[in-house]
Amino acid sequence: MIVWYTPNGDFILYNRHKEPIKNWDLPTAVKAKLKELLPKGKWTVLLAELMHHKVAGIKNTVYFHDILVHESVLLAGETFEKRQEILSKLLPAGAEAYSHYVVSEGIWRAKNFKSDFLKIFKSIKNQKIDEGLVLKNPTAQLKHCYKADSNAGWQIKFRYPTKNYNF
Predict the structure, then answer these.
(1) Does residue 151 lie within any of the structural domains?
(2) How many CB atoms are located within 10 Å of the residue 87 CB?
(3) Which residues neighbour 73 within 8 Å (Cβ) at sequence distance 6 or greater?
(4) In terms of Cα–Cα distance, which of 51, 91, 55 is closest to 70?
(5) Which of 32, 38, 30 is nearest to 91 (CA)?
(6) Which CATH number does the domain housing residue 93 bear?
(7) pLDDT tens digits, one per residue of 111-165
């Protein structure tokens, strides 16, 4: 999901196919917390997973994992590591879970791991929440996002088999 936060304080939500998300909106408490944390009067564009439809029992939770625009500046050319630094300042950890930080109720931020990937992958307990790992080159620079796969060259996914991803 792509979350746009506009200079006038509105949220616009898109799916990965560049279509507006219909039949769901950010919960009021999530919007209020994000408005408290994100820069006012500026554009912010975040990448996230909507856990609402992915995992039974986890509703109205947004799992943030990257930032594309900060303070109305497109972060093209910035490294993944730098963007994660910006994201961690915008969405500070309130608590720590196995694979993510809990910023507040309904807002999670992805944890980043720098080693022991096989050990981490094998230790995943709930494969419905943690489908696997996405390995990203920390020094890779964000390219302009003209196509869905514009930035696919510096990341790779390792997933457990599911009905949609069977190996």
Answers:
(1) no
(2) 20
(3) none
(4) 91
(5) 38
(6) 3.30.470.30
(7) 877 777 677 677 766 666 666 556 677 788 787 665 555 555 555 565 666 666 5
